[in-house]
Amino acid sequence: MAGKAYALLGPTASGKSSMALELAARVPAEIVSMDSAQVYRGLDIGTAKPSATERAAVRHHLIDVIDPDRSYSTGRWRTDAIRTVLEVLGRGKVPLIVGGTMLYYRALVGGLDALPQADAEVRAAINAEALERGWPALHAELARVDPKSARRIPAGDTQRIQRALEVFRITGRPLSSLQGQTAPALPFALKAFALIPQDREALARRIAERFDAMLAAGFVDEVRTLRKRFQLTPGMPSMRAVGYRQVWQHLEGELSEAEMREQAVAATRQLAKRQLTWLRSFRDLAPAERLGHSFL
What we know:
Layout: E1 4-9, H1 16-24, E2 29-33, H2 52-57, E3 60-61, H3 74-90, E4 94-99, H4 102-110, H5 120-133, H6 135-145, H7 147-152, H8 158-171, H9 175-178, E5 189-194, H10 200-216, H11 219-229, H12 244-251, H13 257-281, E6 286-287, H14 291-295
Parallel strand pairs: 1-4, 1-5, 2-3, 2-4, 5-6
């Protein structure tokens, strides 16, 4: 066993990054991002990416890994994260994995299922059907071919519906039948902590306030610039991130500024709700308040 790493999980806007930076100021830690949107270059404001000053003070990893017109898989993150943690340990530093992409954490500790790689043509066909028939109809189709996954995936979670149908169309087998393989043990010890806000209304207020701050910082201009620099489409993973999807619709004239804000805040609240559901499903998560004592 190479050493010990720590993970800090929590819903969006819960204060994970601030806590991690405070801890890293007290111990020789390096932060490994566990955020599926921060991997994209140029997605800065809308992902609450750490500032240049913060990144100068504490070394961060797995941020700005790839351009936003490319795809970055959970499997690639797991490989990159394990390699990075081992490199941090090799430097005699403490690896602190921080983020809210719960699928990444599940893959890290539980491994990856024997699932096919994404297929652009199949996804494009599913998206075209969704435009014509609507996502509720596709969720109903999923219920016919993979009832177990349909029961687990909310009717409004279009990304997971798309993936489940994609897997079925590629393999002819339900997604649920391909999941659950045992993972090889990590080459380091890992202790995970959860930052779970007790006041949900306060979290909802912070989400709204943070999005307003993003707008004031130039979020719309950021997306406008990205659209000019890269050959982006609304179906790309980077542009499907919460906030970016709604700003894209605003720039397309589909949403007014007020509608964009309202829908983005609502989508972020739903994201936080899903993240909390994930957290409740994970075992052996210690309260975040104990993380500092583990370091010292």
